[in-house]
Amino acid sequence: MPYRRSSLMEERLADNRLRILKSARALVAEGGFRQASITAVAARAGLSTGAIYRYFPAKADLFVEVLNSAVDYEVAMLQKIADGKGDVGTRLRAAVRSFVSRAVEGPNLAYAFIAEPADLEVEAARLICRERFGEVFKQLLREGIAANVLPAQSIDVGAACIVGAFTEALVRPITPNAKREASKALIEGIVEFCARAVGAAKAS
Amino acid sequence: MPYRRSSLMEERLADNRLRILKSARALVAEGGFRQASITAVAARAGLSTGAIYRYFPAKADLFVEVLNSAVDYEVAMLQKIADGKGDVGTRLRAAVRSFVSRAVEGPNLAYAFIAEPADLEVEAARLICRERFGEVFKQLLREGIAANVLPAQSIDVGAACIVGAFTEALVRPITPNAKREASKALIEGIVEFCARAVGAAKAS
Amino acid sequence: MPYRRSSLMEERLADNRLRILKSARALVAEGGFRQASITAVAARAGLSTGAIYRYFPAKADLFVEVLNSAVDYEVAMLQKIADGKGDVGTRLRAAVRSFVSRAVEGPNLAYAFIAEPADLEVEAARLICRERFGEVFKQLLREGIAANVLPAQSIDVGAACIVGAFTEALVRPITPNAKREASKALIEGIVEFCARAVGAAKAS
Amino acid sequence: MPYRRSSLMEERLADNRLRILKSARALVAEGGFRQASITAVAARAGLSTGAIYRYFPAKADLFVEVLNSAVDYEVAMLQKIADGKGDVGTRLRAAVRSFVSRAVEGPNLAYAFIAEPADLEVEAARLICRERFGEVFKQLLREGIAANVLPAQSIDVGAACIVGAFTEALVRPITPNAKREASKALIEGIVEFCARAVGAAKAS
DNA sequence: CATGAATGAGAATTCATTCAT
DNA sequence: TATGAATGAATTCTCATTCAT
Predict the structure, then answer these.
(1) Which residue of D has its CA nearest to C150?
(2) How far apart, in whole angstroms, are the C-alpha atoms of residue A126 and residue A112?
């Protein structure tokens, strides 16, 4: 009688794949790609190194997926906001706020997103990720300029700078004191910086 | 009779030290920290690997100095502009333009400045470098706000975002076609983005 | 009540065993022992890796049997020819022709027969296989010499050399051009070489 | 004052390279490519694994050189004999005798010459090596046939078979008893086998 | 019995650092 | 003092074998 894979086992499998991804992501978030060796990922996931290769054909594939899955989620969030109702400026503010808030919150994709990966394939994926963030803002800028709500400006450059500006929030502990409060100020600071930059300053 | 180091020898020593630093910087600029192995640095400097260790106790120390010396130069340039005459907005524009122009021009410290170094010590130095760039802009923002030329805003955040925005320009090939012309547009795009962001928009 | 293995089940078992052997042989024939991993054998046989170990205690045992069963067949073919009627020279020619023809025909056991196996046990089996081929030719030589049809000569050496000579035909693509025709010439070339070597040259 | 490499040091270096080659060759001779891991080669040479890579860029390069250098020597010996004076049959006998004698003598390139290497690059080199042996015999056959000393026959096939026949001497312990004496008989057996095969039988 | 995920030892390769010369 | 050969730990990846299900 053939062996039938139990649903419990399938759960275990899916679980392992996820654990590997989470381990990898956590390690990158904590100390960059530097610390994310296969051995370290395996140890953290409670698996052997060989097990990693059942789920990912090579190290690069694992980290490309780490990057992509994290960015998929983030971009989806931003896109939802960008596609929402309300005036362009508000949506742009909301998008920046949404991203930066999560970034400030905890160690997630942040570091990976800017850090130089050891692998060229991963590096390529990283650049594409940055582009994808830019796309969301390009769309908002295009819409705003077309509607005469935003002043004429370079869409490509604007999008890139926004991404750069809030990326910065991910790298440095800008305000090392008074975490919670400072975060709030930091987030709003970035939001307003970007808003002013694109000419969507609040009517004050 | 005590051995007296000849001035000629001292020159040689200083010369070697400089050559090592230049080799290291060039290698990082060309291919990131990835390519900057001690062996590669030594080969490029026309020295032996052992010789490197006469001038630098460890790899990390060498690259910390590479980073610092490169940033010393850049910050000095920016500081000079910031300390110059003319209104704050113009000086801020000039500072951004100065940095981004050189960055776009050729692969120099740019890459090193954003790339993840292999070493924790170097990573720390890199973060400090970013701070140092920020300081220049903080000064300008402070001055501008004090003089009521710039609107009230978070100085820390503003400075960070400016650095982030123009850092972004270093990472991606925003406009892969029409190099020269596009660079010009890119540079001015970033300059204006930052100017608007801090409320130093041109009188249009 | 004791468990009675149904004959249907036994068939299944024998079937699996055969499938495993066939898979292994095919893989070795295609790319040497290099490509014949347990995983590959299992996949090709449509079984799990674990199943292999139900039929063979270890990888080496599987490949020893692969070798032996393949050689059983070949040796049986040769033996039939050697035991046939007609003069010794003709039979020796036929035997060499039979072996070389099949070898040239397609990738079968040929490669395995000469290739270095990954395992010491298999290596030992391989050497024994070569001996077994030799035995057939020893018999023919003995008979021929006894009947004064062949000149006096070392039987052991003669047999070994014949095996060596036609083994060589398996290793190199002697004539890469004009496949069919060349094969024919190659085969007859080897046949006549061996015939002359043992003093069974055609009456010319 | 620049450091000048002493000739003693250069000797050491050349010595190491040679030691590595010898270790590799010995390991292959003893147990095939299977046993010749970089670790094993290094250990046997009294060096670290890293040291191997100072002399050989990759494992394949090391073993290609092992193969080539061994074959260079052998082929040179054979060529010298083939280019000598005397009738073709005598030279052919001498060439075969020369090769087989050394092969029987001790574990040298023998195994490597026939064994399947783990590496495709090495495999390619191995096939070329076999061809090179063949070339020497092709030359002799061509000369003999042209001078009407040898009967008409396929030169390519003849050369291949000769190589095959004496290769066999390398693989198996044809005569396990009475080493010395048997070797003598084995060697002459192979010599005469090949001589008869090409039609250069002794006038008896 | 069958399954195939997991193991873990081992392979090739790299590179910062040391030290005999 | 300069050299660069040597070290050896670390890294990625493979695969025969086991065992919970």
Answers:
(1) D196
(2) 8
On whether the CB atoms of residues A117 and A204 are closer than 8 A, the answer is no
Q: What is the pTM of this model?
A: 0.85
Round to whole Å and give the CA distance between B173 and B179.
Answer: 10
C80 CB less than 7 Å from any atom of strand E: no
Residue whose tokens read 């991804």: A21
d(CA A31, CA A42): 16
Tell me the CA–C1' distance in angstroms for B11 and F2. 16
3-state secondary structure B35-62: HCCHHHHHHHHCCCHHHHHHHCCCHHHH
Is C190 close to D157, i.e. CB distance below 8 A? yes
Shortest alpha-carbon distance between residue C66 and chain D (Å): 18
Tell me which chain A residues have a C-beta less than 8 angstroms from the C-beta of B178: none
Rounded Cα distance between D38 and B80, Å, is: 58
**By the 8 A CB rule, do A172 and B128 touch?**
no
User: Which nucleotide minimizes the distance between its C1' and the CA of D16?
Assistant: F5
Q: How far is CA D119 from the centre of its chain?
A: 19
Query: What confidence tens digit (pLDDT) does each residue in D38-79 have?
Result: 999 999 999 999 999 999 999 999 999 999 988 898 899 999
Say which residue, A122 or B166, is predicted with more confidence: A122
Q: CA B139 to CA A96: how far, in whole Å?
A: 26
Q: In chain B, what residues touch A189 (CB-CB under 8 Å)?
A: 153-154, 156-158, 161
pLDDT at D157 over 50: yes
pLDDT of amino acid C111: 60
Give the C-alpha separation, B17 to B55, whole Å.
6
Comparison of pLDDT for A137 and B201, the residue scoring more: A137
User: What are the structure tokens assigned to C10, written together?
Assistant: 């036994």
Q: Tokens standing for B178?
A: 């029409």
DSSP B107: S
| Tally of CB atoms within 10 A around C154 | 19
Instruction: Please give the Cα distance from D48 to D31 (Å, whole number).
Output: 21
Instruction: Give me the residues of chain C with pLDDT under 50, please.
Output: 1-2, 174-178, 204
Pick the residue from chain D with its C-alpha nearest to C153. Answer: D189
Q: What is the pLDDT of residue C114?
A: 67
Distance from CA of D77 to the nearest CA of C (A): 22
Helix C120-146 crosses helix C59-82 at what angle (to 10 degrees)? 10
* A167 touching chain B per CB within 8 A: yes
Q: How far apart are alpha carbons A48 and A63 in whole angstroms? A: 17
Q: D177: exposed, middle or buried (C-beta count within 10 Å: 0-12, 13-18, 19+)?
A: exposed
Location of structure tokens 């052992």: B50
All domains in chain B, ordered by first residue: 9-56 (1.10.10.60), 59-197 (1.10.357.10)
Q: Are B115 and B176 a contacting pair, CB within 8 Å? A: no
What is the per-residue pLDDT for A2?
Answer: 54
Q: What is the pLDDT of residue A175?
A: 45
- Spatial CA neighbour of B154 closest among A174, D183, D57, A11: A174
Q: How far is the CA of A1 from the C1' of F19 (A)?
A: 19
Is C192's Cβ below 8 Å from some Cβ in D? yes
Contact status of C47 with chain D (Cβ, < 8 Å)? no
Give distance CA B110 / C1' E16 (Å). Answer: 25
Count CB-CB contacts under 10 A for residue B147. Answer: 10
For chains A and B, CB pairs below 8 A equal 137
How close, in Å, is residue D1 to chain C by CA atoms?
Answer: 54
Are the CB atoms for D118 and D151 separated by under 8 Å? no
CA of D22, C1' of F10: distance in angstroms: 28
Question: What is the mean predicted confidence (pLDDT) over B93-113?
Answer: 77
